[in-house]
Every structure is written in structure tokens, then in C-alpha cells.
Amino acid sequence: MGAIISLGNKRCQEAAIPLAECALAYPNDIVQNLEILRAIGSLSDSELRRAALQLLKSHPSSIIRKQLPPIKFEHKEHD
After folding, report:
1. Can you tell me the distance from the alpha carbon of 48 to that of 54, in angstroms, rounded to the nearest whole number?
2. Is 6 inside a domain boundary?
3. Residue 13 to residues 21, 31, 46, 48, 75: CA-CA distances in angstroms?
4. What is the number of domains present in the chain?
5. Is residue 78 part of a domain?
6. pTM greater than the 0.90 cutoff
7. Which ranges of the chain does DSSP label H, i.e. alpha helix?
């Protein structure tokens, strides 16, 4: 739990997907999973953050799925 809080405080983009994978590996630890959501939610918008949130959409706990922040998808114009 300390590592999750630490990564959240550092706002480490590279940790987004491993944190989401951790939440999926231990779905019954709701307190830890909520802290993971807080950590991922505190990240600035990026592909890694969006990918982590997309992974968590399949979390078995409805509590976690309902707490997911919105995922903003970038729309790129092609020339």
C-alpha cells in the first residue's frame, strides 16, 4: 500500500498500467484498489493513464468500476 501511495504522490505516468494490473490481480482488496484509482486519477491526461483506466473498466468489483474517472480520448485530425 505504501508503494501505491508513493507512486500516486510522485504522479509517475509509467506506473499507471502496472497499478491497474495490480488492481486486477487483487480485486478483493477494495481499499488498495481505491488508492490505485486515486493514484491513476491524479495523473495528467496521457495515453498511459487512458490505457490504465480502460483496463480497469473490466474490474470485477462494481464499486471500482463506478469510481472510474472519465476517459478522455484524443481525436486526431488527419491532413
Report:
1. 10
2. yes
3. 14, 21, 8, 6, 21
4. 1
5. no
6. no
7. 2-10, 16-25, 30-41, 47-56, 62-67
Residue 49 has pLDDT above 80, yes or no: yes
pLDDT in tens, 11-30: 989 999 999 999 999 999 99
Residue 35: what pLDDT?
95
Distance between CA atoms of 9 and 59, rounded to whole angstroms? 23
Mean pLDDT within 48-70: 94
Tell me the three cell numbers of residue 34. Answer: 481505491
Residue 7 domain boundaries: 2-66
Q: Is the pLDDT of residue 36 over 60?
A: yes
User: Cell for 52?
Assistant: 490504465
* Contacts of 35 by beta carbon, 8 Å cutoff, 6+ apart: 1, 4, 5, 8
